[in-house]
Amino acid sequence: MGRLTARQPVLRIRDGVCSQRPDTLAAEEPLEIRVGGRPLSVTMRTPGNDFDLSAGFLVSEGVVHSAGDVAAMRYCAGATADGGNTYNVVDVALAPDVSPPDASLERNFYTTSSCGLCGKASLDAVRTTAAWSVAEDRLTIAPETLVALPERLRAAQKVFDKTGGLHAAGLFTASGELLCLREDVGRHNAVDKVVGHALTANLLPLRGTILMVSGRASFELVQKAVMAGIPMLAAVSAPSSLAVDLAVESGLTLVGFLRGNSMNVYSGAERLHLPLVN
């Protein structure tokens, strides 16, 4: 659905002068993801690309690995008391030979727009087994290409231009070509939408690509990159300590504070064409 933005009145104060005017806000609504009719998770997201979001979430959880693993996806009618369709409930039907999600994956609480891990029973449950090894990926990229990615990501953020309130995730080639961009109020949702798009296009694993995100690099984003077979994650802000630990453990290249002509490389520096460090 296309409910990407909403209009609300706002009192604007500039240099002591007040004015009443409408403002464009990023939409945020709950999405319930079901598998085979059974509720699995609820996430707060920006409506749009909901099938990609659902598919990407299942990739991140290790449930599906290719387009053939998903038989169908649909919005559920009857989500309201009068039988209407809110377009806020997606039911995913898995292929007959695909095992349903383990009960331990079910969220005990809804997933907020800032946290994709809320309700996880334990940290061990997050460390899902990846279907592909990113450590073996032969991706290399020139630093001058990498530093250009934040601006290319920002230039493609159409809804952010209107609202100033969305995260973005973009998938790039080693030459800096933008393959896919998604925006959402949740950084983890934006990544899931990119990964879900790749799943439905049967592009997994995403070897030789760079995932560029507009915010910080958390553990969950590193996990999602690894689960999709993406060998490099770059962020304009800081990574967490656990994100770095998982990147090192997985063989993923993790770059933070990618701003202007500078960056911090926390793991996998061998994938960048860098001068020798004194």
Automatic annotation (TrEMBL):
Coiled coil: none annotated. Keywords: Cytoplasm, Molybdenum cofactor biosynthesis. This is Sulfur carrier protein FdhD. InterPro entries: Cytidine_deaminase-like, FdhD. One of its GO terms (molecular function) is sulfurtransferase activity. It comes from the Bacteria. Pfam families: FdhD-NarQ (PF02634). The gene is fdhD. GO terms for cellular component: cytoplasm. It comes from Hoyosella altamirensis. The lineage of its organism: Bacteria, Bacillati, Actinomycetota, Actinomycetes, Mycobacteriales. Gene3D superfamilies: 3.10.20.10, Cytidine Deaminase, domain 2. It is found in: Cytoplasm. Belongs to the FdhD family. Signal peptide: none annotated. Required for formate dehydrogenase (FDH) activity. Acts as a sulfur carrier protein that transfers sulfur from IscS to the molybdenum cofactor prior to its insertion into FDH. One of its GO terms (biological process) is Mo-molybdopterin cofactor biosynthetic process. The active site is at 115 (cysteine persulfide intermediate).
